[in-house]
Amino acid sequence: MAVAFQIDVAGTSPPALQSHWWTEFDQLGLATVTSGALAEVSGPSIEGISTLVLSFACWTAFWTGLFYALSATADRWMRGVPASTKAHENDKYWCARNLIGGIHATFVAMLTVPACIALLTAPSSSRFAHSRYLGSCPADPGMELDDVEGWSVVFQGVALAGLAFTSFTFADLGISLVHGLATADFIVHHIVFVSAGMIIRGWCVLPFNAAMLLAMEVSTPSLNYLVFFRHRGEAYESAVKKHGIVFVVLYIIFRLGVNSYGAVLLWIHRKDAVPGVIPEWQVWFLLSAVSAGVAVQIFWFPAIVRTFGSEMCGFTEDRPDPDRDELTQQSLGQRSCARQGEPSMGRDEELDLMEAKSPNTSVESEPAV
């Protein structure tokens, strides 16, 4: 039976205010509204929107504050680290962005890899569960689950990781624009995946697919390590090679294997994986984004194999690098200012540097939401 969504903004909000909030969220793709009124949809009432908004704002502020704190203290935590032979890799913003990216990826992976494993053999009722409380996405008491409390912990962990990822990507977009680190494709990439993250996290749906997508971040810390230390001397040669091996192995397992499985699973269950309240265009948007993400990972893989296959035979400082967009794209138009007296690399010089590398080694952020 079709009933109207009742949005409880703070638990005591009048209907007019609830409708206003829901209309505002519709502009972000998080609700279905007709002519500014509450839509008629099937299902129980939705709660926790104010908590979701506040949490997103706090997470965004946290990532932004952490980035600038790391940038301001770069001379301290970089003390004792040899300067890179690449000038832009000595930039305090580049270094801070590398470190915060590793922190973010580690946090997200710690939450989602166990959840991914737990949901791998779970029934469809758990894999495609959805929650009416948007604040933290717990399992609804009425869900047909074998262990409601246990699965609730899993769902909330994935939801927390999704919120951290979406807010991080949103903050990263703003930071990159402010400091001139973003290129056109970087901007489009981040907008697409912030939107995808808002849809999945905003509706509290697809915990298994979300866990699989976010679990791809498990390979990022190793990638960040080797990108940060590869041009800082032979002392790091062994560690860089080891992290390269770890990155490739995790890439195959999660970015190719798990990610592809998740995409196929979503296509197979596209008609029943999400509740009917979600607009059809949002479902197709997610299917397109996930499919494109798989295609990109497959496209990158040959270049990654060539790169690490060559470097396993010897440490070569100027070989092509499988950098992700947040690392390679930042090198275009970036200033070198972490070390006093170092000249800034001009844009033309940096373009020449990037063109000297393989054109297929600029690796963007995967569509983890």
Textual characterization of the structure:
The chain is mainly α and 369 residues long. It folds into two domains: 1-46, no CATH class; 54-124 and 158-363, no CATH class. Helix content is 60%, strand content 4%. It has helices at 15-26, 49-72, 74-77, 92-120, 124-127, 148-178, 184-203, 207-215, 220-229, 237-268, 280-311, 325-328, 347-355; strands at 2-4, 33-34, 37-38, 40-42, 323-324, 362-363. It has a two-stranded antiparallel sheet with strand order 1-4. A hairpin with a 2-residue loop joins β2 (33-34) and β3. α2 crosses α6 (148-178). The chain is globular. It starts with a strand and ends in a 6-residue tail after the last strand. Residues 163-306 form the TLC domain.
The global form is globular
Instruction: Kindly state the percentage of residues in helix.
Output: 55-70%
The N- and C-terminal alpha carbons lie at a distance of 32 Å
Count every helix, treating DSSP H or I runs of 4 or more residues as helices.
Answer: 13
Task: Domain count, please report it.
Answer: 2
Number of strands: 6
Strand order of the largest sheet: 1-4
Strand proportion, as a percent range, falls in under 5%
Which structural category do the helix and sheet elements fall into?
A: mainly alpha
Instruction: Describe the sheet with the most strands.
Output: 2 strands, antiparallel
Average pLDDT, rounded to a whole number, is 77
Q: Determine Rg (CA atoms, Å).
A: 22 Å
Low-confidence stretches: 1-43, 315-369
The ordered string of helix (H) and strand (E) elements is: EHEEEHHHHHHHHHHEHHE
